[in-house]
Structures are given as structure tokens and as C-alpha cells.
From TrEMBL:
<feature type="site" description="Stabilizes the basic form of H active site to accept a proton">
    <location>
        <position position="104"/>
    </location>
</feature>
<dbReference type="GO" id="GO:0005737">
    <property type="term" value="C:cytoplasm"/>
</dbReference>
<feature type="binding site">
    <location>
        <position position="79"/>
    </location>
    <ligand>
        <name>tRNA</name>
    </ligand>
</feature>
<protein>
    <recommendedName>
        <fullName>Peptidyl-tRNA hydrolase</fullName>
        <ecNumber>3.1.1.29</ecNumber>
    </recommendedName>
</protein>
<dbReference type="GO" id="GO:0004045">
    <property type="term" value="F:peptidyl-tRNA hydrolase activity"/>
</dbReference>
<dbReference type="Pfam" id="PF01195">
    <property type="entry name" value="Pept_tRNA_hydro"/>
</dbReference>
<keyword id="KW-0820">tRNA-binding</keyword>
<comment type="function">
    <text>Catalyzes the release of premature peptidyl moieties from peptidyl-tRNA molecules trapped in stalled 50S ribosomal subunits, and thus maintains levels of free tRNAs and 50S ribosomes.</text>
</comment>
<keyword id="KW-0378">Hydrolase</keyword>
<feature type="binding site">
    <location>
        <position position="77"/>
    </location>
    <ligand>
        <name>tRNA</name>
    </ligand>
</feature>
<keyword id="KW-0694">RNA-binding</keyword>
<keyword id="KW-0963">Cytoplasm</keyword>
<dbReference type="InterPro" id="IPR001328">
    <property type="entry name" value="Pept_tRNA_hydro"/>
</dbReference>
<dbReference type="GO" id="GO:0006515">
    <property type="term" value="P:protein quality control for misfolded or incompletely synthesized proteins"/>
</dbReference>
<dbReference type="GO" id="GO:0072344">
    <property type="term" value="P:rescue of stalled ribosome"/>
</dbReference>
<feature type="binding site">
    <location>
        <position position="125"/>
    </location>
    <ligand>
        <name>tRNA</name>
    </ligand>
</feature>
<feature type="site" description="Discriminates between blocked and unblocked aminoacyl-tRNA">
    <location>
        <position position="16"/>
    </location>
</feature>
Length: 199
């Protein structure tokens, strides 16, 4: 275990900046970090690096002193997030093993999720950029399922499109559950989180 002084988690919501992308499947990471910021009672503000917006505080169940957490949303497009995330990790002295990437996952059905440590990027440009910048894939991932595109729709078109009207009814629950998983991960560790959320 790391010592308390450096026991900071960097939780990164992957997505694309700007209102035109806000509701896209690819932006589920932004949606989850918005919910976590709400729970922490704070809004995002510009980090001095100029390359990300952050919220600093503690993330925990009411009445318990939770770990220190930096929520981050890079201000660049998905394929360039590695640089800003690495810069934040260096600034806050967070090792890759205490970085959490929240992202959309094609190979998991909508309304399900998986939490894991390490692995490849599975064609996800955000993860690919982070692995390249860190020189390792050994960071945590909260993989929020979006399922595969219907019919012959291109993957790029699918991830850069809004959720269906049916999915939007369930989406708040999905976001809430993913935020719960992040809270559990930073407070209780990977094993307990996987037992509870990788169902």
C-alpha cells in the first residue's frame, strides 16, 4: 500500500469536449465524472496545465473519510488524452496503478459494466493514447458497456452518436452505477469492486 501522503487517485472521464459530443456513447466517461463531481459537491475548474478540467476532494460514502481523489476531464479529443492525463499524474504524484479511466466498451452489452486493472486498448483510442503516454497499460478501467452497433453501422458512427431513446431511459441508472463502482474501487479496492459490479 502507498503511504497516506501520496494516496491520491486520479479518476479520468474519457470523452470528447464540447456540447456537440455531450450525449454521445463515447462520452460516458464525462457523464460519470459529472456525477462524481456532484457527489463531491464541487464543479470542474481549469487545471493550471491548461489541458484538463479537474475537481479535487474526497470521495466516500456519507460519514466516512474517503481517499483523496482528483477527477479529470481532458480538454482534448479522445485520441490525444494520454498527454494531459500523464501530466496530471505527474503533477499530483499519482502512479499508474492509482489512475482510473472511465470509458465506453463495445464488447460489453449496454447496461452492464466491468472493472479491471491493466490490459490492452481493444481499439479504444483514449486507452491507446493513455498506454502510449504512461508506457504501460497497468491502470484501472471502469468499462461501461455500450454494445455493438446494429446492422452494418460503422463503429465510429455508432460511438459518436447519441444513445437511443430506449437507452436514455436507463442511462441515469448506468451513470449512477458506474459512479458507485468508482467510489467502491478507490475505497475498498479492486477485488471487492469486481465482486459487486462485474456481474
Amino acid at each position: 500500500m502507498s503511504d497516506a501522503a501520496t494516496d491520491v487517485w486520479l479518476v479520468v472521464g474519457l470523452g470528447n469536449p464540447g456540447p456537440s459530443y455531450a450525449g454521445h456513447r463515447h462520452n460516458i466517461g464525462y457523464m460519470v465524472t459529472d456525477e462524481l463531481a456532484r457527489r463531491m459537491g464541487s464543479g470542474f475548474r481549469a487545471h493550471k496545465s491548461g489541458r484538463a478540467d479537474v475537481v479535487e476532494g474526497r470521495l466516500s460514502a456519507p460519514g466516512t473519510p474517503g481517499p483523496r481523489v482528483v477527477l479529470a476531464r481532458p480538454r482534448c479529443y479522445m485520441n490525444e488524452v494520454g498527454g494531459p492525463v500523464k501530466a496530471l499524474a505527474t503533477f499530483y504524484k499519482v502512479p499508474p496503478a492509482q489512475v482510473v479511466a472511465i470509458h465506453d466498451e463495445l464488447d460489453i452489452p449496454f447496461d452492464t459494466m466491468r472493472v479491471k486493472l491493466g490490459g490492452g486498448d481493444n481499439g479504444h483510442n483514449g486507452l491507446k493514447s493513455m498506454r502510449s503516454s504512461f508506457g504501460t497499460g497497468d491502470f484501472h478501467r471502469v468499462r461501461v458497456g455500450i454494445g455493438r452497433p446494429p446492422g452494418r453501422q460503422e463503429v465510429a458512427d455508432f460511438v459518436l452518436s447519441d444513445y437511443s431513446s430506449t437507452e436514455r431511459k436507463v442511462l441515469p441508472f448506468v451513470v449512477d452505477t458506474a459512479a458507485d463502482a468508482v467510489e467502491c474501487l478507490v475505497s475498498d479496492g479492486l477485488e471487492k469492486t469486481q465482486q459487486r459490479f462485474n456481474s
